[in-house]
Amino acid sequence: MSTFPIYRPRRLRANENLRRLVRETALSVDDLIYPMFVVHGHNTATEISSMPGCYQYSVDRLVTAAKELIALGIPGTILFGIPAAKDPLGTEAYADDGIIQLAVQALKDAVPDLLVMTDVCLCEYTDHGHCGVIEDSEVKNDPTLELLVKESLSHARAGADVIAPSDMMDGRVGAIRDALDENGYENIPIMAYAAKYASAFYGPFREAAESAPQFGDRRSYQMDPANTEEALREVALDIQEGADILMVKPALSYLDVIHRVKTEFQVPVAAYNVSGEYAMVKAAAQNGWIDEERVALELLTSIKRAGADMILTYFAKSVASGQWSVTS
Ligand code: PBG
């Protein structure tokens, strides 16, 4: 009979109902974590110029923003703090009246149903802007672990639901897990920034969190963008040390890494769609060069298709509301 191929792929693309039925990847509000920035003060929401639609909130306004997340059905937020003062050891990071600790208490009090994750790192709190203790002009690994443990315990005492270390010091997941367990927080999960690359895509975040390194860069602790096998070793180590959720960051230039982590380890994988990835879409959309909604949904779908179970993204509210250019 016909020599034409029997399988005609276009048959199942003919209309939206067929396309819905055969669609392999679904992006859902269930997958989203919305990052928020919190500062001292009262009744302030300052827009971050390189991240339109994202704000540095005072604690009271953070609570209002958190209520909006609940209304949109977003499961969780991850918090970043901007301290009142910075010093060489990042003291406010582990002060029980530090900005994150106050924010977590307020959120757990006013919006208990929102999952509150806290980023554990020192770079927002140190005057040199590095993620660890500096000795002899170097970021020292082991002395930093003690401070990260103090910070994690302080977040847990404030009521954090998930602890998310982002510093990339060796051994920190194990140290934090031990300390949480010894202090009665054995049920608090750790989401480890396991494969975190030394990326130029964090630029806008460093404006938002006021955390740019004052000298040098982060290449002696964050990963070289050229490496994949090393990412798998990092993930294996973090699993061994007790991490519950394994993160790859950034997301878009590292879809292959997300895919390999998901296929080689059957663990929950998070991907961080970082500030620079957000800013690029926003800037091009503001110029009328791309359709923001379609581009953002395509990018987020690609992150899920690569294997991420959850996505930390500044687009979370837009996705959940279906309204783009959200302003609050
Ligand atoms: C803290 C931290 C950073 C980000 C998350 N946690 C910045 C950095 O490592 O310099 C970046 C997030 C983003 O760009 O959206 N270490």
Structure notes:
With 328 residues, the protein is of the alpha/beta class. Helices cover 38% and strands 19% of the residues. The chain has eleven helices and twelve strands. The chain has helices at residues 16-22, 59-72, 99-110, 141-158, 172-182, 203-208, 229-240, 255-264, 275-286, 292-306, 316-321; strands at residues 32-39, 45-48, 51-58, 76-82, 115-120, 133-135, 138-140, 162-165, 191-196, 245-249, 269-273, 310-313. Strands 1, 2, 3, 4, 5, 8, 9, 10, 11 and 12 form a ten-stranded mixed sheet that branches. Strands 6-7 form a two-stranded antiparallel sheet. Strand 4, helix 3 (99-110) and strand 5 (115-120) form a beta-alpha-beta unit. Helix 2 (59-72) crosses helix 3 (99-110), helix 4 packs across helix 5 and helix 8 runs parallel beside helix 10 (292-306). The longest helix has 18 residues, at 141-158. The termini are far apart. The model has no long low-confidence stretch (mean pLDDT 96). It binds ligand PBG. Ligand PBG is lined by residues 119, 121, 123, 131, 166, 202, 205-206, 274-275.
Radius of gyration: 20 Å
Percentage of residues assigned to helices: 25-40%
Average pLDDT figure? 96
- Number of helical elements: 11
Taking pLDDT < 50 over at least 5 consecutive residues as the criterion, the unreliable ranges are none
